[in-house]
Predict the structure.
Amino acid sequence: MKIDSLELKNFRNFEDATFHFPTNFTVVIGENGKGKSSVLQGLRVAAATFLMGIDEAERYHIQKEDVRRIDLEDRFVPQRNCSFKASGILNEKAIEWKRTLAKPSGRTDYKDAYDLINLSEELNNEVNQNLEENVNLPIISFFSTARLWVDSKQTVALKKKGSKLKDGYARCLDDRSDKKSPMEWIKSATWKKLKEKQESSALLQGVLEAIDTCIPHWTPTEWDEDSDDLGGNYIDPNGKKTFIPLYYLSDGLRTMAAMVADIAYRCVVLNPHFGNEAAKLSKGIVLIDEIDMHLHPKWQQSVTADLKKAFPNIQFIATTHSPFIVQSLTAEELINLDRLTDVDPNKLSVDEVSTNVMGLENEYGEESHNLENLSKKYLELLDSPKTKFSQLKLEELEAKIGDPAVRAFLNLQKLKKDTI
């Protein structure tokens, strides 16, 4: 499943806007309040339409909070016919679908979404009615800014046999990501591997390889009985190798590992017929809000490439404020809500990305920028005719310049002028 375009009308920030997603990795940027999360929310509801054809999947519709409101001086006015219209591909078939919330107190219709719902029902029936095992099912996942792993350490149960469709799509669009199910599955697969069940061994290998691809300096190796956690080898900056359970990694490493494990887990649950290649061969849509969250700048530069490598057939759409993320992209992979962008950010320096692509007016900090402006005014006054007013103005500017080195330089220039 892939979404090629999305049209939003009276949806959150947008009165009428259309977005295109020509590549398998797209990042949306823009200043706060421009609508990055609104685009992601529209995609979330569009992807959720697929779940309407799945018997045991949760439903997710346009919310009353998604309705665009006009801000008048003394009140907000909700607009009618909040809608999205999407086009894309599911199992090589081109489709279009649309859903509308006519008024905030109403229900989201689906009369124009049957192209997608009927296809998902067909897949549902192949799995649950015809008992087919080799059905290619799309991965659907949403990761909000609430995905940070802050839960206390808990005992991990063994994952019991369940329903492919129910487990594969459970909580896939929730604000809080599911960290429990992937860990339970990894623990269970490790146990089955010890019992020499080859299928579980291959699927486990695929999940661990995906995590290894995306997490720097830490390689998952086994389920650690002592900590009751996924354990792995961590290599510190000095090259020293230490065995560390997942829970004891830094927030950034642990949260990213949990996200990758969640995606890979859904790949093997929904498409076990791909074996250890499930993460690489599965298709679908993954939405990530603020992909740079809790990642070191060095890791931000490579995270998009890592995800592409681990899941080459999955469409990723993310938001970011990070110039390091943007610098890893081509122009085709970028949606800029602030300005038109046709230059490839991956051919620019980080400073050039910040100023030319993201619109940062000054590449230095605000304090340095103010110091530069004060110094320029001081030097301009030195070049102007000497008057009592100009001398008072020079003293006033000098008092505002806190850097002693800059003050010393400007005083030297003043002395040179006075001796001429």
Q: What stands out?
A: The two ends are 76 Å apart (CA to CA). The longest strand covers residues 2-11.
